[in-house]
Amino acid sequence: MAGTNSERTMIAEGPVVILVNPQLGENIGMVARAMANFGLAELRLVDPRDGWPSETARAAASKADHVIDGARVFDRLEDAIADLNFVYATTARSRDGFKPVRGPTVAARTLRQRFTAGERTGILFGRERWGLSNEEVALADEIVTFPVNPAFASLNIAQAVLLMSYEWMKSGMADEAETPFQAVEQTPATKEDLFGFFGHLEDALDARGYFRPADKRPRMIENLRSVFTRRAMSLQEIHVLRGVISSFDRYRRKENDDND
Amino acid sequence: MAGTNSERTMIAEGPVVILVNPQLGENIGMVARAMANFGLAELRLVDPRDGWPSETARAAASKADHVIDGARVFDRLEDAIADLNFVYATTARSRDGFKPVRGPTVAARTLRQRFTAGERTGILFGRERWGLSNEEVALADEIVTFPVNPAFASLNIAQAVLLMSYEWMKSGMADEAETPFQAVEQTPATKEDLFGFFGHLEDALDARGYFRPADKRPRMIENLRSVFTRRAMSLQEIHVLRGVISSFDRYRRKENDDND
How many angstroms separate the CA of residue A27 from the nearest CA in chain B? Predict the structure, then answer.
């Protein structure tokens, strides 16, 4: 999809993503891609195992070059978050200590509020094998953790970054039901439109002797109308259905002409 | 984390995930892992390019073996969804047609309601390169699409499945602010606890001549107290702080003993 994006708004703002001791370049790349998908841009790496820059990371980033190129490397976590005002630590494990524990939706809303107020914020993600140490978590203001299957909790860092980035994007939407594109605009049908359709259908069926025997007619009409009133139809849908009836009503089945 | 999971509840229910023409075994494996993380279990593959079973898929699934082992392969999408009642199609592109377009939160809530009502549901994900065809989308009841960075929309199928699975998990939570573990339980401090702490601190400082000159004392006390009333403290936090004061108050700095 990236090919047709040149004229579209590039969102690149919000919390800094800080990866502590990331091991695989591929994971760093997938983190960059996840960030770019949801409008985050600032990536910091604390002591990446295989060094930096990394061609593996760039390849896995699927053209999120602005994130890869802007990534900064630090020796110590303390330095990587020195300029920030508020930091979340992500962890899957309960920790001793007084730090508040939030779900991703609440954490994203908090980050959005602080961002809007002009604060610099960040989210820490631990190493692939065992996450963040207690000392690293202690440097953060609050903890964020994901609701996962108790018997299968194996989110990797790229997945964790994806979820937080996604929640960040959602936290900026006026309404979470909002979608980037909508269904084709339709006009709700009035009852008059609907009754016109009923008349068309019933007339066409009547002409074929559909309503037989005569004493069953009221019930048959009732059932027929029920099918089409289960949900409010649009005018466009009624037009489609009237086209169908006209087709049945006016034209004969071509391949059966001989047998009619 | 999977090693300590044996005694924990394995969640394995909810919508079927249907991948149409998936190309890379690795992506199928990451889909299985994402599903398992958020409690989904039923995977169907329509005409996977590299055949099935796939060792690449199993390796990438990170022990989500129950999803891989249970995966079923179909030649046609129609057969893969034949037994379902309600199906979403995921797409990043606007389509012509009357189908309602939903965001992931609303879609997950709809799937949860139908699941609770006993319906069989599914979510379609398209091929890596170009998603679902219009004909495939037409087989679904509604469309679901993700809020993404307009200038960088490159979610892969594993990421899309992760987000829908995550929203599915959240849709089953009584409260989205719920977290799998909580901060250490703390008792909110009463004002009496707080005033006791103020007395302790101010007495220790007073003994050192901290409040000088005397006419600044009220303002200095006011500022000091402000620091500790910006947020409601817990009793545990007050205990920590009183320990700090006691330590300063009772003991001298060891390495400086000679100079004191």
Answer: 13
